[in-house]
Write a structure and sequence with these properties.
alpha+beta; 2 domains; 6-stranded antiparallel beta sheet
Length: 364
């Protein structure tokens, strides 16, 4: 039999600290100017204390500018659709491989039936002209003749069964070929959708002055995270905020909590904050976390060992993107997308907005 179609091979491919309220230890009763002077002194003291105790607020994934609001909305749409299409593609490739293996078995069955029918045809050719009278004459008696007839009838029945089996095998092989062709069409449609979503994300980046190819920050990653649960079809099901986050005193999605916990297990323990309300992006949805990279926690640009810590953390998320359901990672003026890899990111204008003091993770 002719070689069948081979399976398609693809190549792709913020922390907000909790501040306890500071209250007076004793009641003071003052009136007039003395009261105003006292209040002013207390206010000045509290302000100074808070300035020392409270580090810079965690960065949101967007700086509040409308253009970046729109950027993150488009990135979420594009990367969610990209991952959905990739799920469809991967499932189709797996089905195609199973169909090819089944087709190989069907081909073997068909070849066996063809060989059996060929043998029957050869015997018929050799025995051509064998008639009932010849059978009687050669048998020598009516009883022996009946025995010969029974053998001939059995041969005819066997021949008919072999022909029917061959027809069924041919039909099975043709149906499998049609199914393989349908899977290839599905894969082509999925690849087209993935390419369109890749272009959508890159166009959105270019509109805000980002999107140039950037160095790969994930080459050195090797720690394998435990995969997050997937839906029965192999994709990422939408999730609601059901997991309590002590750091922010609110709820995040199970998938976000899983990615956070896997990072902590991998040794990235400098703290993180995931949920906070307001703005666009995934933080209000409980689907994003900002990971601190130094002791100051969101104070300014980091360098040296602290920068390398952030690079290693970003690489960990990229390396495990398919296991954790990563939508994108932002670190040090670069953004990683499943569709496009590392690209430049020009968030403005503080260190938090440029993500030069924390790693941002968004998940499906």
């Amino acid at each position: 039999m002719a070689a069948r179609t081979a399976p398609l091979t693809l190549r792709s491919v913020e922390i907000r600290p909790r501040v306890d309220a500071i209250g007076p230890t004793a009641r003071v009763t003052l009136r007039g100017p003395g009261l105003r002077r006292c209040l002013l002194a207390v206010l000045t003291t509290v302000t100074a204390v808070l300035g020392l105790l409270v580090p810079a607020a965690p960065a949101t994934a967007d700086p509040g500018e409308s253009r970046l609001d729109r950027l993150f909305e488009e990135l979420e749409q594009a990367q969610t659709a990209y991952l959905d299409a990739k799920t469809l593609l991967d499932a189709s490739v797996a089905r195609q491989q199973q169909l090819i293996e089944t087709l190989q078995t069907a081909d073997e069955k068909m070849a066996g039936h063809q060989e059996a029918i060929g043998a029957i045809a050869a015997r018929q050719y050799v025995a051509a002209g064998y008639m009932s009278v010849t059978g009687v004459l050669s048998a020598g008696s009516p009883r022996k003749f009946l025995d010969v007839l029974s053998i001939l009838n059995a041969l005819e029945t066997h021949e008919t069964a072999q022909v029917k089996a061959l027809i069924a095998a041919v039909a099975e092989a043709n149906a499998l070929q049609d199914s393989i062709a349908a899977e290839i069409a599905t894969q082509q449609a999925a690849l087209k959708e993935m390419d369109a979503r890749k272009q959508q994300a890159e166009d959105a980046l270019w509109r805000v002055g980002s999107g140039a190819l950037a160095p790969d920050l994930g080459a050195g990653a090797s720690v394998v995270a435990e995969p997050a649960p997937r839906s029965p079809d192999g994709g990422w099901a939408p999730e609601t905020r059901t997991v309590w986050e002590p750091e922010q005193q609110n709820y995040i999605t199970p998938r976000t909590a899983h990615a956070r916990d896997e990072a902590i297990k991998a040794g990235f323990t400098r703290g993180q904050a995931c949920y906070y309300g307001g703005g666009n992006g995934q933080h209000p949805l409980g689907r994003a976390c900002d990971f601190a990279v130094d002791a100051c926690r969101f104070c300014g640009d980091v360098y040296g060992a602290d920068k390398q810590y952030g690079t290693d953390l970003a690489a960990f998320f990229v390396f495990n993107a398919q296991r954790l359901g990563v939508l994108y990672v932002i670190w040090y003026r670069q953004i990683w997308l499943p569709s496009s890899g590392w690209r430049s990111y020009s968030g403005c204008c503080t260190a938090s907005q440029k993500h030069t003091n924390h790693v941002h993770l968004s998940v499906y």
